[in-house]
Amino acid sequence: MTLLRAIRAPLGVLSVVSCTSAPPATRATPATAAATPASNGQPAAAPGRRVPLSRDSLVKLRAVYIAQVMAQIAGKENQPAEQVFKNVQVLKGITAAELVQKMDKDYATAMSWNCTNCHRFAPQGNFASDTSNDKRRARFMQQMQNEINLSQLPKLYPKDTPKVTCATCHRGYNEPAPPEYLLPERGKPGGLPLLPPRPGTGGAALDPHGH
Ligand code: HEC
Ligand code: HEC
Predict the structure, then answer these.
(1) What residues pair up with 80 in beta bridges, in sequence order?
(2) Residue of the CA atom closest to atom 2 of ligand 2
(3) Is 74 helix (H, G, I), strand (E, B) or coil?
(4) Residue 204 within a domain
(5) Ligand 2 pocket: which of 101, 118, 147, 175 to mutate (most atoms <8 Å of CB)?
(6) String of DSSP letters for 67-79
(7) Does some domain include residue 105?
(8) Distance (Å, rounded) from C-alpha 129 to C-alpha 123?
(9) Contact in structure between 76 and 84 (CB atoms under 8 Å)
(10) CA distance readout (Å), 17 to 45, 120, 149
(11) Has residue 145 been placed in a domain?
(12) Index of the ligand 2 atom closest to the CA of residue 5
C-alpha cells in the first residue's frame, strides 16, 4: 500500500498539471462533467480519479449517523463510554456523548471522512465491529497519541503540557502532508499572520514559542 501511494503521489501532481494546462475545449462537456463532477470550482479530476466529497457534504452525512447513535443511547449520554458501548478499548474515561462528539469533531474531521470509512456496518447501526482496517488503525493511532501526550511530551513540558491531536498530523487528509507542502511563511500571502507583539518588548519580532 505504501508503495502504491508512493507511485500515486507524483502521478497526482502530473494530472493536476495536465488538467490546468488542458485547452478549455477539451474540458467539461456535459457528458464528461457527469462522469467526473467538478467540486467547489476546482478543476475536474482526470478520468478515473476519485473526487473526494466536500467537507460540508461530509458534515451532513455524519449528522445522520450521530442522530442514530444518540437515539440508541438516549438516557445514557452521560454514562462512561466503555459501559454504554460494546467495544471501547482505548477511549475510556469520557462519557458516551463525548465519545460521539470526538468521533465527529476529532477523528472524522481530521481525516475528511464519513463514519462509514471506519464503521462499515454503520448503516446497520453496528459501530462495535472491528472489521475495518481503518478502524483498527485509528485505535492504534489513539494509543500512539496517548503515548506522545501522556508519556513523552510531559518529559519536555512538565507544566502546561501541549497536546497533539489527530488533526496535528492529518490536517483534513487521510495521509499527513509531505514536507513539500510546507505552508507559506508567516506574514506572507497564504501564510499564518504574524504573532502579536509580546507585552513589554516594544513590538520586537518573536519566535512562535516565545523563546
Ligand atoms: C478514523 C476512524 C473513525 C471514524 C471516521 C469514526 N470512528 Fe467511531 N470509532 C473508531 C474507533 C477506533 C473506535 C473504538 C475506540 C476504542 O476502542 O477506544 C470507535 C468507536 C465508536 C463507537 C463505539 C461503538 C461500540 O459499541 O463500541 C461509536 C458509537 C462510534 N465510534 C460512532 C462513530 C460515529 C457516529 C462516527 C461518525 C460521526 C464515527 N464513529 C467515526 C474509529 C472511527
Ligand atoms: C504524530 C502524527 C500522527 C498523529 C497524531 C495521528 N496520526 Fe494517523 N497517521 C499518521 C501517519 C504518518 C500515517 C500513515 C499515513 C500513510 O498511510 O502514509 C497515519 C495513518 C492513519 C490511518 C490510516 C489511513 C490510511 O489511509 O492508511 C488512520 C485511519 C489514522 N491515521 C487515524 C488517526 C486518528 C483517528 C488519529 C487521532 C486519534 C491519528 N491518526 C493521529 C500520523 C499521525
Answers:
(1) 95
(2) 169
(3) coil
(4) no
(5) 175
(6) HHHHHHTTT-TTS
(7) yes
(8) 12
(9) yes
(10) 11, 35, 40
(11) yes
(12) 18
In the block, residue with C-alpha cell 475528511: 112
d(CA 32, CA 49): 13
Bridge partners (DSSP) listed for residue 95: 80
Q: pTM for the whole thing?
A: 0.80
Residue 11 CA, ligand 2 centroid: distance in Å: 22
Domain residue limits at 140: 55-170
pLDDT at 153 over 70: yes
**Cβ of residue 170 lying under 6 Å from some atom of ligand 1:** no
Q: How many domains does the chain have?
A: 1
How far is 39 from 52, CA to CA, in rounded Å? 9
CA dihedral 67, 64, 166, 170 (to 10 degrees): -170
How many other C-beta atoms are found inside a 10 Å radius of the C-beta of residue 127?
Answer: 23
Residue at 119 is within a domain: yes
Maximum C-alpha span of the chain:
63
pLDDT digits (tens, 9 = 90+) for 16-52: 434 344 344 433 333 333 344 444 555 566 778 889 9
80 close to 93: Cβ distance less than 8 angstroms = yes
